[in-house]
Design a protein that fits this description.
Length: 449
């Protein structure tokens, strides 16, 4: 076993923390294999835990973020909602959504009894919509299985749909004062740099985090320790631009000490190597043909509600179809347009594709999901039939309606479709005539003198 030594320099080496610098090669049946060193015991008795905690909380008392879901007596439901909203989403983006959510659904019972349409509407634009669906399912589970009272231990919390290890730890520690760790991306980054471990095995990472919230001195709340780690990672120990000189833990930081020992010229770049980055999943490109279809009498727009399951489940959108080809492949776009018109005719029972007047290309916009880079080709059309009934198919949450322009943004729609709507509105406001296909304007060349 190869170890590096991390000194608490302020105590002149009286305390030593051990940091793994290698792997354990075990011989078994004549073969060598790598075995990650079990740091769980190290985490449980981490010699620097008390010092780290003291300095961390001293910094937190002065620099903590004042957020609407934080209080001296936090409600479990409030903590739960905020933690779900904050997953993969910046605090600034969450603030407005959180306020509206709590005004509309102030208790877990209110959420459990709410219609999914309202839940999606309140979440509309926040992204990762499965979170809203699971939060709704979780609230119903709490009402049915815990009489509407959110449990206070992690085992029971993790039985709730949508509540994982991190969320359970956050609720237990912040709302109930339980000595439970809550390891998110911020905490992982802070602990990886403190210990100079690039690839922190999960069990050992959680054990190290647990050492910071156990054997606490009187008056210390484990939720404050976890939130201090969140704030340190979000404001100072950031992924790409850490401000190490302002960090309260700089003299305890193994990566910082390692950079000094190696006489690294660009210390910031060196620090950002920890933790090691996972290779990003490949993003695939996709072209979507979108039809903004107007009713010829009212000007209302046809919108379709997606199935409850899958990407953007339960949200409203303009009729669309994936183009099997490139953007400039007119044949592929023509086939997609024909398919889209046929789909619309299935929705509007009694209508034919030739009763939809094509008004031209409105423009293009782009939208990026975590795994898909979409280019949306937005076209406009007019439905020229006086009356027709909607398809009666409501399987798996499917639905259809004519919507007035001023009501579109009040529906549960994604940012993707909101871009389409804004593009359509901007074209109308500029006075562009889209009664015929839009043709590119030619600019006259000025004659050289």
């Amino acid at each position: 076993l190869e170890f590096g030594l991390l000194m608490d320099w302020e105590r002149m080496g009286l305390t030593l923390g051990f940091v793994l610098r290698g792997v354990w090669m075990e011989k078994r049946s004549g073969e060598s294999r790598e075995v990650g060193l079990a740091l769980s015991e190290l985490g449980a008795r981490w010699s620097l835990a008390s010092t780290v905690r003291t300095r961390l909380l001293g910094w937190y008392a002065e620099h903590r973020r004042h957020l609407p879901w934080r209080s001296d007596d936090p409600e479990p439901y409030v903590v739960w909602v905020s933690e779900i909203m904050l997953q993969q989403t910046r605090v600034f983006a969450v603030l407005g959504y959180f306020q509206r959510w709590m005004e509309a659904l102030p208790t877990v019972k209110d959420l459990a009894e709410a219609d999914m349409e309202l839940v999606n509407q309140l979440w509309s634009g926040l992204g990762y919509y499965r979170r809203a669906r699971m939060l709704h399912e979780g609230a119903k589970f709490v009402v049915e299985n815990f009489s509407g009272v959110i449990p206070d231990d992690v085992t029971a919390l993790r039985s709730i749909p949508g509540v994982g290890e991190y969320t359970a730890g956050a609720i237990a520690s912040i709302a109930f004062g339980r000595p439970e760790p809550a390891v998110d991306g911020n905490v992982t980054r802070v602990l990886s740099r403190l210990t100079a471990i690039e690839k922190f095995p999960k069990a050992d990472l959680w054990a190290t985090a647990r050492s910071l919230v156990t054997d606490l001195e009187d008056g210390i709340h484990p939720g404050d320790v976890n939130q201090a780690l969140f704030d340190l990672g979000a404001t100072l120990c950031t992924p790409r631009a850490p401000t190490c000189d302002s960090c309260p833990l700089i003299k305890l930081c193994s990566v910082h000490q390692l950079a000094l020992e190696k006489n690294v010229e660009d210390q910031t770049e060196f620090v950002t190597r920890f933790p090691s980055k996972k290779p990003k999943a490949r993003v695939r490109d996709e072209i979507l043909l979108v039809e903004v279809l107007h009713h010829h009498q009212t000007g209302d727009m046809l919108m379709v509600r997606r199935a409850n399951q899958g990407l953007l489940g339960g949200l409203w959108e303009f009729p669309n179809v994936v183009v099997d080809g490139e953007e400039k492949d007119e044949k592929a776009i023509s086939l997609a347009r024909e398919m889209l018109r046929n789909n619309i005719c299935e929705i509007l029972v009694g209508s034919r594709a030739d009763q939809i007047k094509y008004s031209g290309r409105v423009g293009t916009t782009t939208h990026i999901f975590s795994h898909i880079r979409q280019k949306l080709l937005v076209e406009c059309g007019t439905w020229q039939v006086s009356s027709a009934s909607f398809s009666s198919s409501v399987e798996d949450g499917l639905g259809y309606r004519w919507v007035k322009a001023e009501d579109v943004t009040s529906l549960a729609i994604s940012n993707q479709m909101l871009k389409v709507f804004k593009l359509k509105i901007s074209v109308n406001e500029t006075g562009v005539d889209i009664s015929e296909p839009v043709k590119p304007t030619k600019t006259k060349r000025r004659r050289k003198l």
